[in-house]
Amino acid sequence: MPKLAKSLSAIEVQRLIEPGHWSVGGVAGLALQVTPTGARSWVLRIKIGNTRHDIGLGAFPGVSLAQARQKAGELRQQIAEGRNPVQERTAAKARIRAEQAATLTFAEAAERFIKAKSPEWKNTKSPAQWRASLETYAYPVIGNLDIRLIAQQHVEAILEPIWTTKTETATRLRGRIENVLDWAAAGGFRQGDNPARWRGLLDKRLPNPTKLKKVEHFPAVPLDEVFAFSEDLRAMHGTAARALEFAMLTAARSGEVRGAVWSEIDLKAAVWTVPAARMKAGKEHRVPLSMQALDLLRALPQVEGSEHVFTAPRGGALSDMSLTAVMRRMGRSEVPHGLRSSFRDWASERTAYPHEVAEMALAHTVKGVEASYRRLDMIDHRRSMMQAWADFTQTQPTTTADVVPIRREAA
Prior knowledge:
- It holds the Pfam family Phage_int_M.
- Keywords: DNA integration, DNA recombination, DNA-binding.
- This is Integrase.
- Belongs to the 'phage' integrase family.
- Residues 104-185 form the Core-binding (CB) domain.
- A hairpin with a 4-residue loop joins strand 5 and strand 6.
- This protein has 15 helices and seven strands.
- Residues 368-373 have low confidence and may be disordered.
- It has a four-stranded antiparallel sheet, covered by helices on one side. A three-stranded antiparallel sheet has the order 5-6-7.
- Helix 6 (152-163) packs antiparallel against helix 7 (167-186) and helix 9 packs antiparallel against helix 11.
- By secondary structure, the chain is an alpha+beta fold.
- It has helices at 10-14, 65-80, 85-102, 106-117, 126-142, 152-163, 167-186, 226-234, 239-250, 254-258, 291-299, 322-329, 338-349, 355-361, 379-393, and strands at residues 20-23, 30-34, 40-48, 51-59, 265-266, 271-274, 285-288.
- The termini are far apart.
- The radius of gyration is 37 Å and the shape is elongated.
- The longest helix is centred in the middle third of the chain and has 20 residues, at 167-186.
- It folds into three domains: 10-101, Double Stranded RNA Binding Domain; 106-211, Orthogonal Bundle (DNA polymerase, domain 1), CATH 1.10.150.130; 223-393, Orthogonal Bundle (hpI Integrase, Chain A).
- Helix content is 43%, strand content 9%.
């Protein structure tokens, strides 16, 4: 390999284009390395202790001859001072790799949180709902931001535009951001207080959501219209119409009805047992079936290959909009969930059944004194109530509202 003992000029270095290791002088061991492909770079060949090293100083001409000589001189000075620049470089690269491994953007953290926690979520739509809200509101502000850098001002920038106009969405979003940041802190990806925390932090900065949002109850079918509604509904054809009728007779939620399978139904005992996994409160719920509900079930065709009580035309469960579509075809503005409100109004205004019995029929979560009733099934009380409700839905209303008495069970 040709050797150059003298100190080359910048023009002479520019002319070095043949492959080789060309000493350029100026600093002992400094050379320009030319590869067979024509690429050129600076190398300082140096001995540290008993080991020889080739230390790269950058590509030419990006790093000029003068800059290469300065870098080479600084490295030789470090060695003269007892330092090992090779080890220092290796350690620096290791630190960078460790920092990169520990670096996580908010979007990456959110996805990992959703993946880790979604198996425990009862609603299969929850992961999609989480992603949708975060992608819409959070990601434009902090999606690509290192999760260690997320501060209170970022969270407020996300929430403030929608806090008073989309309060429910905003409060859910705040909770989701808080959960993702807690997950990141538990994994060592960030330190310090959670900037999305409500109590003691954001509650001092944002209005109380309970004082902002207007409680909107699901519109109920007026009690004086329940008979006409029931009559029109029974005249409707189709599986969705029968599912809606069954929902009305049982005061059950739409999702519970649409997900019902035949193994949950005991026609002989006149009981529908909804497993805890399909209940909002996460507790098994027994529904006593009225004679009308039993007649409806017995008249249903059992679709071969389907375990669902109400099977969609293409198989599987009915969609969440199928029952609403029936009400729209009937010319109603209410929603299926409003039938539960109709049942609750009837129990309060037209009967003498205790409040807690009606709440249990609706599978509402209760606290305080009422919670003690959860230790009892009270199915006999509820059976008479559900039969009275079914009779009410199919009885022509009179000018005066009669209060339904509680029938004492035979001893």
